[in-house]
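Retro notes
What went well: the complex prediction finally ran end to end.
Inputs used:
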Amino acid sequence: MKLSTPGSTQESELKAGLSDYNLDILSRKRAGLIWRLIFQASTIVGIIALMILILNIINSAYGYSALKAKVDPDTLAVEGVPLEEQNHGQLVAVLQSHISGPAFKKLDNEKPFSERSEADVRALVIARVVRLQVEKTWNLWDSLTKSGEINTEVARDYPDAELRFTSWLNSDFINRPQTSEPVTAGIRTAIYGSLWTILFTVLVAFPIGVGAAIYLEEYATDTWINRLIQTNINNLAGVPSIVYGILGLAIFVRALEPLTSGQIFGIVDPTTANGRTVLSAGLTLGILVLPLIIINAQEAIRAVPVSLRRASYGIGATKWQTTWSHVLPNSIPGILTGTILAISRAIGETAPLVVVGASTAISFDPASPFSKFTTLPIQIYQWTSRPQDEFRALAAAAILVLLMLLLTLNAAAILLRNRYSGRF
Amino acid sequence: MQQNIETTEKPELVIETRNLNIFYNDFRAVSNVNMSVKRHRITAIIGPSGCGKTTLLRSFNRMNELVPGSHAEGEVIFEGQNLYDPMVDPVEVRYRIGMVFQKANPFPKSIYENIAWGARIHGYRGRMDGLVESCLRQAALWDEVKDKLNQSGLALSGGQQQRLCIARALAVQPEVILMDEPASALDPIATLKIEELMQELKKNYTIVIVTHNMQQAARVSDYTAMMMLSDAQRAGTVIEYNETNIIFTRPQDKRTEDYVTGRFG
Amino acid sequence: MGEAIIQSLLFLSGFFSIFTTVGIVYELGKEALLFFQMPEISLLETVTSTRWQPHTGDFGIWPLVTSTLITSAVAMLIALPLGLAVAIYLSEYATPRARSLLKPILEVLAGIPTIVYGYFALNFMTPLLRSILGRDVVDIYNMGSAGLVMGILIMPLITSMAEDALSAVPRSLREAAYGMGATRLETALQVVLPAALSGISAAIIVGISRAVGETMIVAVAAGAGPNFTFNPFKGAETITGHIVRISGGDLSYDSVDYNSIFFLGLLLFFITLALNIFSQRFVRRFREVYE
């Protein structure tokens, strides 16, 4: 409904006639509606992308697999004791009699059998002797909707194989070490590698980062060098992570090799004896997340009201006493939130660690900072790079573990932030 | 509803409110206002701060609705139609009834574009240069800026920016111009210019001005509405409305008298 | 006295970051220089040749650079319109409840590790493209899939920066526009958006910088060998993908391959640094107008 338009006024020649305006309110409103829908649709695209991503991964991580054993496990029974119930010594004997001498020695060198757990050795037997092989896998959707067809296909094409519904993500998956056979592969090695690496990352980045933040917020005056430091930190936050990896390669792996390989301390990893160790990885990631921690900590410190500091100075406290007793305690929640976010960034990083030299084939947990290492994202990367279907399923399962880990971390950070945000 | 009023006699009342109440969610900010605005006259709304003057002014062009939860009951009759009829689009209301704000807010565009943009979105088909010049002349700004129309509107002084905003409002040919304390942020000389401008503009337009400056209201306006918080509900209402000289010399309500004589305010 | 020690320690912490930058420039520069001093490398060939085949001694950077450019361009083609549209929606249209729902989702999208996106690109996007456009048109490893998924990764970044820029435009400007009878769309696109332009430009530049530096998505999905082509459906390794592949293999110190990593890394560092500094200039100009 339009408002009635009065007749054009004749009072002054300066006024333009109303008829000069082509008032097309309806088409303007229509355009408004169309664009509003476009904007709303754009937001839905992001949500849909996220859902498709998660569904796709879940789809790959569960489903039927046709498994065929090279050596029937029943034939491995020792004195009537089946494989599942054999003890450590029996398992080692089975292993020794079925694989070649040099291969057995190599396994012993990597990690002596006496140090391997019974479950680990059993897994080795299954991997190297029984050699369950995956003939074919199907994803979740197909498994649920086409189970009949799959059954006939397996009966026809893979008569020796057993069709089993595999949830590639299960507790065994998490507890088993990495092996070359997909059926028995687990991510325990990778998880430990990630945890050890992050430990060193935090040990390095947290003190330096918080120290730098305190300096910049409480002590730094407006000189050119302090401005340079601040600008530099802001710029470093935008450097691609792979560049940090290259830096880590040059400095930690190569230049500081005596330190990072443990030579100085006499603890050297028997199989590599070079700088591609957990320590190097942790230090590299530490430099990477340092700008993030600094920037977040700065914000947290800045949020503490000036009045609090003034009150402290007013009773004669020194700057450090004020900082230590008043500013820091009140900014700890914010600092911790920032640190947790930095950790979750570091856990997901792949490229810098590939450059620093994550190992591609280790199957034992890291024993010291000077061991070879692998991490969860690296493991995902390796499995993703292999064409076979079963590796795709493994990668999907590992991704689910990684995502859940990150979700927990971020939830903790958000809880922390919400609980302490209403302070001032 | 009337479509095209083809009468030669124009109604004397351009805007008339009937039992107008304005709410923010459940809070009543303005209660039961019955007042009118006469054509080609300047009507001032005065009163102590916080009594709802701006809220009342903004209800005339439905600008209150920009605040979520704001709604009005009662009627605002403009040219014979209720602006708050559900079928009326606020967009239509706002170019017929324009607004100038307390702090000048020119667009970060050139002086020319500031004025041309409004005309353009309303589909102006005439000579844009002529329109821009006409509006700047009516706002008493043409001589000062005619050589720098391409300069940014933000480069002008405070008083000039406010006159630019007035010119901008004129570009869409409003019937009524609402001014919310237009000179409160300006120095006395710039204020004087605005007040002189208002006297010129009222020949062609109708003006409603909110001001906390009583002397300004007395100088400039023909009619004055006195607003005050009604003690009970914390809602503002018009306690007296009359010709300006009557309000300031022989007010009927004691509260008005107290306010205009400066006993409080 | 204790205060002085503490202050020096804190200053050193602050100064540590300078070491990082110096380290990057020095170490990468040193090895890059070694790279150029090697007999088979000539600066001229590096910047003009379009073949990068280390075993035959060809080290022209163009295959890697064009691949980086194309994947980044595809990514921006997705991220820019989507990111901007969502930013406009959040800033001009959305109710507070919608915002509180949307913002966490965007944060989640931005926080997913890039290797996961890489998996997604290879195992979902590529098969999808191949089934839509045909298996002979789209290779198994192609720049387009990687670029599209990169776009999803970068979109939240652009949205967040653009929304900051739009929200910083003062309310009074919107009121001025509404007061003249402008619709919400006209106000958003013709008044608010132009007013926020420098902030939005900064967002775009940061997005490009992120795309150029992105590694895992392209390493997994874009291609495992340098290839000089402009066809986004073919596989071609990017600068970052190449660095990852080379360092993942057996690498002997001071070989040509080893030194080439540093050269490429230095190149990457300077490109992204230049982009980031450039974008900060826009942010500063934006702040001047509104604060």
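What we learned: Chain A touches chain C through 84 residues (CB under 8 Å).
What to try next: split runs per interface for comparison.
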